[in-house]
Protein backbone atom coordinates (compact mmCIF):
# COMPACT_ATOMS: atom_id res chain seq x y z
CA UNK A 1 0.00 0.00 0.00
CA UNK A 2 2.84 2.35 0.74
CA UNK A 3 4.29 1.73 -2.69
CA UNK A 4 1.04 2.73 -4.23
CA UNK A 5 1.41 6.19 -2.83
CA UNK A 6 4.78 6.75 -4.45
CA UNK A 7 4.36 8.54 -7.69
CA UNK A 8 6.11 11.28 -9.63
CA UNK A 9 4.43 14.61 -9.86
CA UNK A 10 3.42 14.22 -13.48
CA UNK A 11 1.89 10.79 -13.09
CA UNK A 12 -1.79 10.37 -13.81
CA UNK A 13 -2.30 7.82 -11.12
CA UNK A 14 -5.14 8.53 -8.85
CA UNK A 15 -5.12 7.47 -5.29
CA UNK A 16 -8.31 5.66 -4.96
CA UNK A 17 -7.69 4.66 -1.42
CA UNK A 18 -8.50 8.12 -0.26
CA UNK A 19 -11.70 8.41 -2.19
CA UNK A 20 -15.14 7.93 -0.76
CA UNK A 21 -15.49 4.22 -1.04
CA UNK A 22 -12.16 3.43 0.45
CA UNK A 23 -12.75 5.92 3.14
CA UNK A 24 -16.01 4.38 4.12
CA UNK A 25 -14.51 0.93 4.32
CA UNK A 26 -11.72 2.27 6.43
CA UNK A 27 -14.08 3.96 8.80
CA UNK A 28 -16.07 0.79 9.23
CA UNK A 29 -13.13 -1.33 10.24
CA UNK A 30 -11.83 1.43 12.40
CA UNK A 31 -15.09 1.65 14.30
CA UNK A 32 -15.21 -2.09 14.64
CA UNK A 33 -11.75 -2.17 16.14
CA UNK A 34 -12.44 0.56 18.63
CA UNK A 35 -15.72 -1.03 19.61
CA UNK A 36 -13.84 -4.20 20.34
CA UNK A 37 -11.42 -2.22 22.46
CA UNK A 38 -14.26 -0.75 24.44
CA UNK A 39 -15.86 -4.11 24.92
CA UNK A 40 -12.70 -5.79 26.10
CA UNK A 41 -11.46 -2.83 28.09
CA UNK A 42 -11.46 -4.80 31.30
CA UNK A 43 -8.99 -7.23 29.83
CA UNK A 44 -5.33 -6.57 30.12
CA UNK A 45 -3.90 -4.96 26.97
CA UNK A 46 -0.88 -6.84 25.84
CA UNK A 47 -0.67 -6.24 22.14
CA UNK A 48 0.94 -3.21 20.71
CA UNK A 49 -0.91 -1.17 18.14
CA UNK A 50 0.76 2.04 17.25
CA UNK A 51 1.71 5.35 18.82
CA UNK A 52 1.57 3.83 22.25
CA UNK A 53 -1.86 2.28 22.03
CA UNK A 54 -2.22 -1.14 23.55
CA UNK A 55 -5.03 -3.56 23.03
CA UNK A 56 -5.97 -6.92 24.42
CA UNK A 57 -5.47 -10.14 22.48
CA UNK A 58 -9.15 -10.53 21.83
CA UNK A 59 -9.19 -7.65 19.41
CA UNK A 60 -6.28 -8.82 17.35
CA UNK A 61 -8.42 -9.85 14.44
CA UNK A 62 -10.27 -6.61 14.06
CA UNK A 63 -6.97 -4.88 14.32
CA UNK A 64 -5.67 -6.78 11.34
CA UNK A 65 -8.74 -5.88 9.32
CA UNK A 66 -8.43 -2.33 10.29
CA UNK A 67 -4.83 -2.08 9.31
CA UNK A 68 -5.57 -3.67 5.99
CA UNK A 69 -8.30 -1.31 5.01
CA UNK A 70 -6.77 1.94 6.07
CA UNK A 71 -3.58 3.68 5.18
CA UNK A 72 -0.82 3.43 7.70
CA UNK A 73 -0.75 7.11 8.37
CA UNK A 74 -4.45 7.09 8.87
CA UNK A 75 -4.24 4.26 11.35
CA UNK A 76 -1.68 6.18 13.30
CA UNK A 77 -3.77 9.29 13.11
CA UNK A 78 -6.85 7.54 14.42
CA UNK A 79 -4.94 5.79 17.15
CA UNK A 80 -3.49 9.07 18.32
CA UNK A 81 -6.94 10.55 18.36
CA UNK A 82 -8.31 7.63 20.31
CA UNK A 83 -5.56 7.85 22.91
CA UNK A 84 -6.15 11.53 23.41
CA UNK A 85 -9.85 10.95 23.83
CA UNK A 86 -9.21 8.20 26.35
CA UNK A 87 -6.85 10.40 28.28
CA UNK A 88 -9.43 13.14 28.54
CA UNK A 89 -12.04 10.66 29.70
CA UNK A 90 -9.71 9.27 32.31
CA UNK A 91 -8.93 12.76 33.51
CA UNK A 92 -12.57 13.64 33.85
CA UNK A 93 -13.41 10.37 35.57
CA UNK A 94 -10.55 10.69 37.97
CA UNK A 95 -11.54 14.18 38.85
CA UNK A 96 -15.04 13.07 39.65
CA UNK A 97 -13.83 10.28 41.87
CA UNK A 98 -11.45 12.63 43.64
CA UNK A 99 -14.06 15.23 44.41
CA UNK A 100 -14.76 15.59 48.05
CA UNK A 101 -11.25 14.78 49.21
CA UNK B 1 -24.59 125.96 78.40
CA UNK B 2 -21.55 124.10 79.45
CA UNK B 3 -22.90 121.17 77.59
CA UNK B 4 -23.21 123.20 74.47
CA UNK B 5 -19.63 124.36 74.59
CA UNK B 6 -18.44 120.86 75.21
CA UNK B 7 -20.37 119.70 72.25
CA UNK B 8 -18.81 122.30 70.03
CA UNK B 9 -15.24 121.48 71.02
CA UNK B 10 -15.83 117.83 70.45
CA UNK B 11 -17.32 118.63 67.16
CA UNK B 12 -14.30 120.54 65.93
CA UNK B 13 -10.86 119.63 67.25
CA UNK B 14 -10.99 116.65 69.48
CA UNK B 15 -12.96 114.64 66.99
CA UNK B 16 -10.37 111.92 67.04
CA UNK B 17 -10.98 111.17 70.68
CA UNK B 18 -14.66 111.46 70.14
CA UNK B 19 -14.47 109.09 67.27
CA UNK B 20 -12.70 106.62 69.41
CA UNK B 21 -15.28 106.88 72.17
CA UNK B 22 -18.05 106.81 69.70
CA UNK B 23 -16.54 103.77 68.17
CA UNK B 24 -16.56 102.10 71.54
CA UNK B 25 -20.16 102.84 72.03
CA UNK B 26 -21.16 101.90 68.58
CA UNK B 27 -19.35 98.69 68.93
CA UNK B 28 -21.45 97.74 71.84
CA UNK B 29 -24.55 98.37 69.91
CA UNK B 30 -23.59 97.24 66.45
CA UNK B 31 -20.40 95.19 66.66
CA UNK B 32 -19.70 95.59 62.98
CA UNK B 33 -16.01 96.34 62.81
CA UNK B 34 -13.82 93.32 63.58
CA UNK B 35 -10.59 95.24 63.84
CA UNK B 36 -11.85 97.37 66.67
CA UNK B 37 -13.40 94.36 68.32
CA UNK B 38 -10.13 92.57 68.41
CA UNK B 39 -8.40 95.44 69.98
CA UNK B 40 -10.88 96.27 72.68
CA UNK B 41 -11.74 93.63 75.16
CA UNK B 42 -15.32 93.28 76.32
CA UNK B 43 -14.73 94.09 79.99
CA UNK B 44 -13.07 97.29 78.99
CA UNK B 45 -16.09 98.31 77.07
CA UNK B 46 -18.37 97.45 79.89
CA UNK B 47 -16.18 99.39 82.22
CA UNK B 48 -16.24 102.25 79.87
CA UNK B 49 -19.93 102.01 79.52
CA UNK B 50 -20.55 102.19 83.22
CA UNK B 51 -18.51 105.34 83.63
CA UNK B 52 -20.98 107.91 84.74
CA UNK B 53 -18.75 110.77 83.75
CA UNK B 54 -19.25 109.99 80.13
CA UNK B 55 -22.90 109.37 80.14
CA UNK B 56 -23.48 112.80 78.89
CA UNK B 57 -20.73 112.30 76.37
CA UNK B 58 -22.46 109.23 75.12
CA UNK B 59 -25.64 111.11 74.68
CA UNK B 60 -23.75 113.74 72.79
CA UNK B 61 -21.99 111.10 70.75
CA UNK B 62 -25.25 109.84 69.34
CA UNK B 63 -26.12 113.24 68.14
CA UNK B 64 -22.59 113.71 67.00
CA UNK B 65 -22.68 110.47 65.07
CA UNK B 66 -25.55 111.65 62.99
CA UNK B 67 -23.86 114.88 62.22
CA UNK B 68 -20.65 113.07 61.40
CA UNK B 69 -22.48 110.85 58.96
CA UNK B 70 -23.80 113.79 57.16
CA UNK B 71 -20.32 115.22 56.84
CA UNK B 72 -18.45 112.07 55.85
CA UNK B 73 -15.19 113.79 56.39
CA UNK B 74 -13.19 113.19 59.44
CA UNK B 75 -10.33 115.64 59.82
CA UNK B 76 -10.28 117.66 56.67
CA UNK B 77 -13.42 119.52 55.83
CA UNK B 78 -14.09 123.07 54.69
CA UNK B 79 -17.02 123.63 57.00
CA UNK B 80 -15.09 122.05 59.82
CA UNK B 81 -11.97 124.07 59.33
CA UNK B 82 -13.81 127.37 59.32
CA UNK B 83 -15.14 126.75 62.76
CA UNK B 84 -11.92 125.16 63.87
CA UNK B 85 -10.01 128.32 64.38
CA UNK B 86 -12.59 129.91 66.60
CA UNK B 87 -12.93 126.85 68.69
CA UNK B 88 -9.29 125.96 68.97
CA UNK B 89 -8.69 127.78 72.16
CA UNK B 90 -11.76 126.51 73.87
CA UNK B 91 -10.95 123.04 72.53
CA UNK B 92 -7.55 123.07 74.12
CA UNK B 93 -8.95 124.02 77.44
CA UNK B 94 -11.69 121.46 77.31
CA UNK B 95 -9.41 118.77 76.00
CA UNK B 96 -7.53 118.96 79.20
CA UNK B 97 -10.79 118.55 81.03
CA UNK B 98 -11.72 115.62 78.92
CA UNK B 99 -8.39 114.02 79.61
CA UNK B 100 -8.82 114.35 83.31
CA UNK B 101 -12.30 113.10 83.24
CA UNK B 102 -11.18 109.98 81.56
CA UNK B 103 -9.52 107.77 84.02
CA UNK B 104 -9.45 104.74 81.94
CA UNK B 105 -5.99 103.62 81.03
CA UNK B 106 -6.79 102.61 77.53
CA UNK B 107 -8.21 105.99 76.69
CA UNK B 108 -4.83 107.71 76.24
CA UNK B 109 -2.70 105.05 74.70
CA UNK B 110 -4.96 103.26 72.34
CA UNK B 111 -6.22 106.46 70.87
CA UNK B 112 -3.06 106.98 68.89
CA UNK B 113 -2.78 103.34 67.96
CA UNK B 114 -6.31 102.79 66.97
CA UNK B 115 -6.94 106.17 65.45
CA UNK B 116 -6.28 104.77 62.04
CA UNK B 117 -8.38 101.75 62.78
CA UNK B 118 -11.03 103.90 64.27
CA UNK B 119 -11.13 105.94 61.15
CA UNK B 120 -11.37 102.86 59.06
CA UNK B 121 -14.10 101.39 61.11
CA UNK B 122 -15.72 104.76 61.10
CA UNK B 123 -15.72 104.66 57.38
CA UNK B 124 -17.08 101.19 57.26
CA UNK B 125 -19.70 102.09 59.77
CA UNK B 126 -20.67 105.00 57.67
CA UNK B 127 -20.95 103.01 54.49
CA UNK B 128 -22.70 100.18 56.21
CA UNK B 129 -25.17 102.61 57.57
CA UNK B 130 -26.01 103.99 54.17
CA UNK B 131 -26.45 100.44 52.87
CA UNK B 132 -25.39 101.20 49.36
CA UNK B 133 -21.95 99.62 49.07
CA UNK B 134 -21.12 96.29 50.67
CA UNK B 135 -17.74 96.72 52.20
CA UNK B 136 -18.88 95.55 55.57
CA UNK B 137 -17.71 91.95 55.31
CA UNK B 138 -16.52 89.39 52.77
CA UNK B 139 -19.90 87.83 52.20
CA UNK B 140 -22.91 89.79 51.20
CA UNK B 141 -26.22 88.95 49.63
CA UNK B 142 -25.09 90.01 46.20
CA UNK B 143 -21.97 87.88 46.18
CA UNK B 144 -23.93 84.93 47.44
CA UNK B 145 -26.42 85.34 44.67
CA UNK B 146 -23.63 85.49 42.12
CA UNK B 147 -22.11 82.33 43.53
CA UNK B 148 -25.37 80.44 43.35
CA UNK B 149 -26.00 81.61 39.80
CA UNK B 150 -22.53 80.62 38.65
CA UNK B 151 -22.79 77.27 40.35
CA UNK B 152 -26.13 76.51 38.81
CA UNK B 153 -24.90 77.63 35.43
CA UNK B 154 -21.86 75.37 35.65
CA UNK B 155 -23.94 72.39 36.69
CA UNK B 156 -26.38 72.84 33.83
CA UNK B 157 -23.58 73.27 31.33
CA UNK B 158 -21.70 70.16 32.38
CA UNK B 159 -24.87 68.14 32.59
CA UNK B 160 -25.72 69.07 29.03
CA UNK B 161 -22.20 68.24 27.84
CA UNK B 162 -22.29 64.86 29.52
CA UNK B 163 -25.66 64.00 27.97
CA UNK B 164 -24.39 64.99 24.59
CA UNK B 165 -21.29 62.83 25.05
CA UNK B 166 -23.30 59.81 26.10
CA UNK B 167 -25.57 60.22 23.12
CA UNK B 168 -22.56 60.36 20.87
CA UNK B 169 -21.24 57.11 22.27
CA UNK B 170 -24.59 55.43 21.87
CA UNK B 171 -24.90 56.56 18.30
CA UNK B 172 -21.40 55.46 17.51
CA UNK B 173 -21.92 52.00 18.96
CA UNK B 174 -25.17 51.39 17.12
CA UNK B 175 -23.68 52.68 13.90
CA UNK B 176 -20.85 50.22 14.17
CA UNK B 177 -23.20 47.28 14.44
CA UNK B 178 -25.13 48.12 11.34
CA UNK B 179 -22.61 49.36 8.84
CA UNK B 180 -20.26 46.97 7.12
CA UNK B 181 -17.69 49.70 6.81
CA UNK B 182 -16.14 48.93 10.13
CA UNK B 183 -12.89 47.71 8.76
CA UNK B 184 -12.27 44.09 7.88
CA UNK B 185 -9.40 41.74 8.31
CA UNK B 186 -6.96 41.82 5.45
CA UNK B 187 -7.74 38.30 4.32
CA UNK B 188 -7.88 37.29 0.70
CA UNK B 189 -6.04 38.45 -2.30
CA UNK B 190 -5.17 37.60 -5.87
CA UNK B 191 -4.22 34.04 -6.73
CA UNK B 192 -3.59 31.92 -9.78
CA UNK B 193 -4.42 28.25 -9.65
CA UNK B 194 -5.60 25.34 -11.75
CA UNK B 195 -9.10 24.04 -11.34
CA UNK B 196 -10.07 20.38 -11.43
CA UNK B 197 -10.72 20.60 -15.16
CA UNK B 198 -7.18 21.63 -15.77
CA UNK B 199 -8.09 25.21 -16.56
CA UNK B 200 -6.03 28.02 -15.14
CA UNK B 201 -8.10 30.33 -12.99
CA UNK B 202 -7.48 33.44 -10.97
CA UNK B 203 -9.46 35.02 -8.18
CA UNK B 204 -11.15 37.27 -10.73
CA UNK B 205 -13.01 34.28 -12.10
CA UNK B 206 -14.95 34.09 -8.89
CA UNK B 207 -16.23 37.66 -8.93
CA UNK B 208 -19.95 38.23 -9.02
CA UNK B 209 -20.97 35.43 -6.71
CA UNK B 210 -20.51 34.49 -3.11
CA UNK B 211 -17.85 31.87 -2.48
CA UNK B 212 -17.13 29.63 0.43
CA UNK B 213 -13.53 28.47 0.35
CA UNK B 214 -12.13 25.51 2.23
CA UNK B 215 -8.45 24.60 2.38
CA UNK B 216 -7.58 20.93 2.71
CA UNK B 217 -5.97 17.98 0.95
CA UNK B 218 -7.28 14.80 -0.56
CA UNK B 219 -5.27 12.46 1.63
CA UNK B 220 -6.95 13.75 4.72
CA UNK B 221 -8.17 10.90 6.99
CA UNK B 222 -11.35 12.27 8.45
CA UNK B 223 -11.48 16.01 8.93
CA UNK B 224 -11.52 17.20 5.34
CA UNK B 225 -14.18 14.75 4.24
CA UNK B 226 -16.28 15.72 7.17
CA UNK B 227 -15.90 19.43 6.48
CA UNK B 228 -16.57 19.05 2.81
CA UNK B 229 -19.71 17.08 3.48
CA UNK B 230 -20.80 19.83 5.82
CA UNK B 231 -20.02 22.42 3.19
CA UNK B 232 -22.01 20.59 0.54
CA UNK B 233 -25.00 20.20 2.82
CA UNK B 234 -24.88 23.86 3.79
CA UNK B 235 -24.75 24.98 0.18
CA UNK B 236 -27.87 22.97 -0.55
CA UNK B 237 -29.58 24.23 2.53
CA UNK B 238 -28.81 27.86 1.72
CA UNK B 239 -30.15 27.40 -1.77
CA UNK B 240 -33.28 25.88 -0.33
CA UNK B 241 -33.88 28.45 2.38
CA UNK B 242 -32.85 31.73 0.84
CA UNK B 243 -32.35 30.94 -2.81
CA UNK B 244 -28.84 32.27 -2.73
CA UNK B 245 -26.22 30.68 -4.93
CA UNK B 246 -22.97 30.11 -3.15
CA UNK B 247 -19.99 28.67 -4.92
CA UNK B 248 -18.07 26.13 -2.85
CA UNK B 249 -14.35 26.01 -3.46
CA UNK B 250 -11.78 23.50 -2.30
CA UNK B 251 -8.14 24.54 -2.42
CA UNK B 252 -5.51 21.94 -1.83
CA UNK B 253 -2.61 22.55 0.52
CA UNK B 254 -0.83 19.40 -0.66
CA UNK B 255 0.42 20.35 -4.13
CA UNK B 256 2.76 17.39 -4.33
CA UNK B 257 0.12 14.71 -4.22
CA UNK B 258 -3.00 16.54 -5.26
CA UNK B 259 -2.90 16.58 -9.01
CA UNK B 260 -5.72 17.85 -11.14
CA UNK B 261 -7.10 14.38 -11.62
CA UNK B 262 -6.86 13.57 -7.99
CA UNK B 263 -8.70 16.68 -7.07
CA UNK B 264 -11.31 16.05 -9.71
CA UNK B 265 -12.07 12.61 -8.43
CA UNK B 266 -12.15 13.87 -4.94
CA UNK B 267 -14.48 16.81 -5.28
CA UNK B 268 -16.78 14.94 -7.57
CA UNK B 269 -18.01 12.88 -4.67
CA UNK B 270 -19.13 15.74 -2.51
CA UNK B 271 -21.06 18.18 -4.59
CA UNK B 272 -21.51 18.81 -8.30
CA UNK B 273 -20.80 22.50 -7.87
CA UNK B 274 -17.73 22.03 -5.75
CA UNK B 275 -14.73 23.51 -7.53
CA UNK B 276 -11.35 22.07 -6.69
CA UNK B 277 -8.23 24.13 -7.10
CA UNK B 278 -4.63 23.12 -7.04
CA UNK B 279 -1.33 24.28 -8.41
CA UNK B 280 2.37 24.03 -7.86
CA UNK B 281 4.04 24.65 -4.55
CA UNK B 282 4.66 28.36 -5.13
CA UNK B 283 1.11 29.11 -6.14
CA UNK B 284 -0.27 27.25 -3.18
CA UNK B 285 2.11 29.06 -0.87
CA UNK B 286 0.93 32.36 -2.28
CA UNK B 287 -2.75 31.69 -1.83
CA UNK B 288 -2.22 30.24 1.64
CA UNK B 289 -0.35 33.37 2.63
CA UNK B 290 -3.11 35.60 1.26
CA UNK B 291 -5.71 33.73 3.26
CA UNK B 292 -3.54 33.31 6.34
CA UNK B 293 -3.80 29.54 6.16
CA UNK B 294 -1.43 27.43 8.20
CA UNK B 295 -0.30 24.17 6.63
CA UNK B 296 2.62 21.91 7.38
CA UNK B 297 3.70 18.48 6.32
CA UNK B 298 4.07 16.02 9.15
CA UNK B 299 6.57 13.31 8.29
CA UNK B 300 5.01 10.00 9.07
CA UNK B 301 5.82 6.96 7.03
CA UNK B 302 8.62 8.26 4.93
CA UNK B 303 6.68 8.67 1.73
CA UNK B 304 3.25 8.96 3.11
CA UNK B 305 2.50 11.90 5.25
CA UNK B 306 -0.31 14.00 6.57
CA UNK B 307 -0.64 17.72 6.29
CA UNK B 308 -1.51 19.64 9.37
CA UNK B 309 -3.63 22.66 8.44
CA UNK B 310 -6.09 25.19 9.81
CA UNK B 311 -9.67 24.05 9.49
CA UNK B 312 -11.49 27.13 8.32
CA UNK B 313 -14.04 28.06 5.67
CA UNK B 314 -13.84 31.56 4.27
CA UNK B 315 -16.93 33.35 3.07
CA UNK B 316 -16.04 35.81 0.30
CA UNK B 317 -18.47 38.36 -1.09
CA UNK B 318 -19.13 38.90 -4.81
CA UNK B 319 -16.21 41.29 -4.95
CA UNK B 320 -13.93 38.60 -3.50
CA UNK B 321 -13.70 40.56 -0.30
CA UNK B 322 -13.45 38.69 2.95
CA UNK B 323 -16.67 38.64 4.97
CA UNK B 324 -16.57 35.94 7.60
CA UNK B 325 -14.89 32.70 8.51
CA UNK B 326 -16.41 29.55 9.96
CA UNK B 327 -14.51 27.04 12.03
CA UNK B 328 -14.96 23.42 12.87
CA UNK B 329 -17.39 24.25 15.65
CA UNK B 330 -20.16 25.24 13.21
CA UNK B 331 -22.52 22.48 12.21
CA UNK B 332 -24.52 22.44 8.99
CA UNK B 333 -27.42 24.51 10.27
CA UNK B 334 -25.24 27.09 11.98
CA UNK B 335 -23.13 27.41 8.89
CA UNK B 336 -26.18 27.93 6.69
CA UNK B 337 -27.61 30.49 9.10
CA UNK B 338 -24.37 32.37 9.31
CA UNK B 339 -23.95 32.58 5.58
CA UNK B 340 -27.53 33.71 4.99
CA UNK B 341 -27.18 36.37 7.62
CA UNK B 342 -24.00 37.74 6.10
CA UNK B 343 -25.47 37.79 2.61
CA UNK B 344 -28.57 39.62 3.80
CA UNK B 345 -26.50 42.20 5.66
CA UNK B 346 -24.33 42.77 2.66
CA UNK B 347 -27.31 43.50 0.49
CA UNK B 348 -28.45 46.28 2.79
From TrEMBL, chain A:
The keyword S-adenosyl-L-methionine does not apply. It is found in: Mitochondrion. GO terms for cellular component: mitochondrion. InterPro entries: COA6_pln, COX6B-like, CX6/COA6-like_sf. Its main location: mitochondrion. It comes from the Eukaryota. Keywords: Disulfide bond, Mitochondrion. Signal peptide: none annotated. This is Cytochrome c oxidase assembly factor 6. It comes from Protea cynaroides. The lineage of its organism: Eukaryota, Viridiplantae, Streptophyta, Embryophyta, Tracheophyta.
From TrEMBL, chain B:
One of its GO terms (cellular component) is mitochondrion. Disulfide bonds join 220-224. The lineage of its organism: Eukaryota, Viridiplantae, Streptophyta, Embryophyta, Tracheophyta. The keyword Transmembrane applies. Keywords: Copper, Disulfide bond, Membrane, Metal-binding, Transmembrane, Transmembrane helix. Pfam families: SCO1-SenC (PF02630). Gene3D superfamilies: Glutaredoxin. It comes from Protea cynaroides. The keyword Transmembrane applies. It comes from the Eukaryota. Residues 85-97 have a biased composition (Polar residues). Residues 85-134 are annotated as: Disordered. This is Thioredoxin domain-containing protein.
